[in-house]
Design goal:
By secondary structure, this protein is α/β, with parallel strands linked by helices. It is built from eleven helices and nine strands. The chain folds into two domains: about 210 residues, Spore Coat Polysaccharide Biosynthesis Protein SpsA, Chain A, CATH 3.90.550.10; about 55 residues. Strands 1, 2, 3, 4, 5, 6, 7, 8 and 9 form a nine-stranded mixed beta sheet that branches. Helix 1 runs parallel beside helix 2.
Length: about 280
């Protein structure tokens, strides 16, 4: 790959529940970069509002956006799978429809691939905010080096999905995005690392991620716990975790996701999982 003439894709999906103003900000941040993508693959996951349709039409006229429209909402895993398949370049950056990239996000990630041609994926830290981007309520900083990332994987998801740029071939080799309730990304990282992919996380904040009170509510309940429980079993069956680590992880998740009220769960996340 000639990094002096590098071209890369950005993959994003949007669905009916997305806020049009946030969506416009997200797309604007993709095209307000020091290093621009060659294409933005936008998957419209089912019917969307007229406001979002209008924004898509505006950008289709002025920027290199390729839109794939799905007749009905198929969920994040399916939409990500379709989007990745349509990307024509080996390097693909993921973008969520309500987050904001800093203006040199892609430049910094491409620089990492230039410096280490063995890398399969480059992630970064995120700064979380609710309504005002200048008021950061927490930062999610994860281990940087591959060996540390593999160790962290045994306990928690080691990559901020909305920040990643990866090699399409490495993702496809691991089976690509597969539906797994709220954990399609974690499941993908596990399978990629089982295939000896090489990860790197920049300590820099490259994405501002929106959050809201419902975020912590979505991190609880039986459906979410069962999703995490099955992931733990998968890691144990693939000899990633010992029976002790597997059991400990399941017990911690049972307490946090099923026993704690939402307001206490929020405090736990902010205290132990954010800076």
């Amino acid at each position: 790959m000639d990094f002096n003439q590098i071209k890369f894709s950005v993959s994003m999906s949007v669905y009916h529940g997305d806020n049009p103003d946030f969506f416009r900000e997200a797309i604007s941040s993709v095209f307000n970069q020091t290093l621009l993508p060659d294409e933005l693959i936008l998957v419209v996951d089912g019917e969307v509002s007229d406001e979002i349709k209008k924004i898509i039409k505006e950008y289709e006229l002025s920027d290199n956006i390729k839109t794939i429209r799905l007749e009905e909402n198929m969920g994040h895993g399916h939409a990500r799978r379709v989007g990745l398949h349509k990307c024509k370049h080996e390097l693909v950056a993921i973008m969520d429809s309500d987050d904001i990239c800093i203006e040199n996000r892609f430049e910094k990630q491409i620089e990492c691939f230039k410096k280490n041609t063995n890398l399969s994926l480059v992630g970064a830290s995120v700064a979380e905010f609710c309504t005002d981007i200048s008021v950061v309520i927490g930062k999610k900083v994860l281990p940087s080096e591959n060996e540390d990332i593999k160790r962290f994987l045994k306990i928690r998801c080691p990559v901020n999905h909305m920040t990643v740029m990866f090699r399409k071939s490495e993702v496809e080799k691991a089976g690509g995005y597969i539906d797994w309730f709220h954990n399609e990304d974690y499941y993908l990282w596990i399978r990629m690392l089982l295939n000896n992919a090489v990860f790197y996380n920049l300590e820099d904040v490259l994405v501002y991620a929106r959050t809201n009170p419902d975020f912590y509510k979505r991190r609880g309940g039986w459906k979410y716990f069962l999703s995490e429980y099955k992931l733990q079993k998968f890691m144990y069956s693939n000899k990633i975790n010992s029976i002790f680590r597997c059991s400990t992880n399941i017990i911690v998740r049972f307490v946090v996701q099923l026993l704690l009220p939402n307001y206490i769960r929020e405090k736990v996340f902010i205290k132990f999982f954010r800076q």
